[in-house]
Amino acid sequence: MPRFAIAVSSFALLFGLAFQSSPQKEEKKTMNVKRITPVLLVKEIEPVVPFWVERLGFTKTVEVPDGSKIGFVAFQKGTTEVMYQTYASVEKDAPPPMASEAGKGPTYLYIEVDNFDAVLAAMKNVKIVMPVRTAFYGMKEFGVQEPGGHFITFAHPVAPPQH
Asked: Which helix (H) or strand (E) holds 119?
């Protein structure tokens, strides 16, 4: 290697070390999340369709068959979306780590609503797992277990209880 190249390399090395020793602010890039959509896994999808469509007024926007059954479905209401996929479909579709963990338990959803009484009325004959209460954090809420086995808490902001 020519002397000039060695000198330049040595200078760059020293120059770089000098900059490394001084504190530098690292600029963090921001990321905007556009939407988060839960995908709930169930043995079969057919029983959950009336829950979301008839009781809660969602529209079925996507339906993917899996043989004679539904393997995947998406429901939407306004900007809110929820998806369901069967365990059998996940086993066919997902890589081994995801597929093997798929059936490990129910999901818990917390949904804030604008008309608490209307949602409560729509849950007639649905398994109520948490009676209506007002929580210390100022939310009136109740919980159900939907036909697929998942737990959903519906909530509406109210004044916190006085102690």
From this structure: helix 116-122
